[in-house]
């Protein structure tokens, strides 16, 4: 702060970190509205508030975005202790409300009473689409098994379009390069995870996470499903829901004779690790990967069966083929030879060791599954 004028120091007090100011909740019971333990914050807010992730003009800023756990009806409210334009004529506070309104659909509540009234109707909410898979996870805190279900939905499901508009707002806070998709394109599939829970003797459903998949056409009669975005909401992370969702989606597409292979759009490192675990787990069901065959060592037959049965995409080969199509011969040569041989060896060794570490982690997780 050295070298700043008194006014600059004063104004600096009105800068708020938006990752801390934004407070998110998934509400099941009215008492959770005042329970700080149910609050979680974004990982990112730069797509709404800029690269510095700062809102100017407020002290004690709180941006409340509370969602009813099942249908995601929303409460949006802004709170602060003071605002610059109440005391200063030379500056103006950021229009935080307008920035949030750009990403959340209309129809949200602005006061707690209306939100609680909607919460009382949550008993009528049911998951959208077709049930694909049911599984349970043991909860140490509750001392019981909790049931979860995965559904496949599309925009023909009554009420799903409005629900999806609310659901996709979470992408802005938890996926670094997220964007909203064109829901009018019928080639999108949506896979949703819900938790079943009891409230006053009734069975209710809470949103856990979801995945979007785009079905590309492959000549002459195939499709290539590409995973676009996948998110397990923070209160449910670390419980294995991502693996359950990805495995369910893979099994769904594997069973279709029209699916050529399954891909992912710009996969993150965490997604690749999750996919490795799921694919290794699926390989256990293949004849070539039976214990007796594994003892005989790796074979080309394993590659063929895994690709054909699990619809695994030949990613590296396709990338090289794409480069060959897009680049002139001399450009391709320069691209492939731009790293000297020693550096290639160093990077290859580093990649190999990282791969060994990743596979060891997959095997350890597989042993616990």
Strand content: 15-25%
The ordered H/E elements are HEHEHEEEEEHHEEHHEEEHEHHHHHH
Radius of gyration: 25 Å
Distance between the termini: 53 Å
Low-confidence stretches: none
Largest sheet: 6 strands, mixed
User: Shape, please?
Assistant: globular
Mean pLDDT over the residues: 89
- Percent helix among the residues? 25-40%
Q: What is the number of E strands?
A: 13
Q: What class, by secondary structure content?
A: alpha+beta
Strand order of the largest sheet: 8-9-10-11-12-13
The helix tally amounts to: 14
Descriptive overview:
With 369 residues, the protein is α+β, with helices and mostly antiparallel strands. The chain is built from 14 helices and 13 strands. The strands form 4 sheets. A 6-stranded mixed sheet has the order 8-9-10-11-12-13, with helices on one face. A 3-stranded mixed sheet has the order 2-5-6. Strand 10 and strand 11 form a beta hairpin. The model has no long low-confidence stretch (mean pLDDT 89).
Write the layout of secondary structure elements.
Elements: H1 6-12, E1 15-17, H2 18-21, E2 22-27, H3 46-49, E3 54-56, E4 58-59, E5 62-68, E6 74-79, E7 82-83, H4 96-101, H5 112-119, E8 130-139, E9 144-153, H6 160-167, H7 171-174, E10 188-199, E11 202-218, E12 222-232, H8 241-254, E13 263-264, H9 269-283, H10 291-295, H11 300-310, H12 315-326, H13 329-337, H14 341-368
Parallel strand pairs: 2-5, 12-13
Antiparallel strand pairs: 1-3, 4-7, 5-6, 8-9, 9-10, 10-11, 11-12
Helix pairs in contact: 8-9, 9-14
């Amino acid at each position: 702060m050295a070298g700043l004028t008194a006014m600059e120091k004063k104004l600096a007090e009105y800068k708020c970190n938006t990752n801390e100011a934004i407070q998110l909740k998934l509400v099941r019971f009215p008492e959770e509205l005042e329970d700080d333990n149910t609050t979680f914050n974004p990982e990112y807010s730069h797509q709404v508030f800029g690269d510095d992730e700062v809102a100017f003009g407020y002290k004690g800023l709180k941006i409340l975005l509370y969602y009813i756990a099942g249908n995601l009806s929303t409460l949006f409210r802004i709170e602060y202790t003071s605002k610059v334009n109440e005391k200063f004529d030379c500056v103006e506070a950021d229009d935080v409300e307008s920035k949030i309104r750009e990403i959340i659909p209309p129809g949200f509540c602005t006061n707690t009473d209306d939100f609680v009234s909607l919460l009382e109707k949550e008993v009528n909410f049911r998951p959208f689409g077709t049930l694909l898979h049911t599984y349970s996870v043991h909860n140490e805190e509750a001392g019981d098994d909790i049931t979860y279900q995965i559904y496949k939905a599309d925009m023909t499901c009554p009420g799903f379009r409005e629900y999806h508009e609310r659901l996709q707002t979470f992408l802005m806070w938890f996926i670094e390069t997220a964007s909203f998709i064109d829901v009018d394109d019928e080639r999108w599939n949506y896979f949703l995870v819900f938790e079943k829970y009891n409230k006053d003797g009734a069975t209710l459903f809470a949103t856990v996470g979801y995945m979007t998949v785009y079905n590309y056409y492959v000549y002459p009669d195939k499709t290539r499903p590409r995973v676009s975005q996948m998110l397990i909401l923070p209160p449910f992370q670390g419980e294995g829901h991502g693996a359950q969702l990805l495995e369910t989606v893979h099994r769904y597409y594997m069973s279709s004779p029209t699916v050529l292979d399954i891909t992912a759009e710009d996969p993150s490192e965490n997604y690749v690790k999750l996919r490795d675990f799921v694919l290794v787990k699926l390989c256990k069901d293949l004849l070539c990967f039976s214990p007796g065959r594994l003892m005989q060592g790796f074979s080309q037959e394993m590659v063929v069966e895994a690709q054909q049965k699990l619809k695994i995409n030949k990613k590296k080969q396709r990338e090289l083929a794409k480069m060959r199509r897009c680049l002139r011969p001399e450009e391709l040569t320069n691209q492939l030879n731009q790293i000297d041989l020693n550096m290639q060896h160093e990077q290859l060794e580093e990649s190999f060791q990282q791969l060994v570490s990743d596979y060891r982690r997959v095997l350890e997780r597989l042993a616990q599954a």
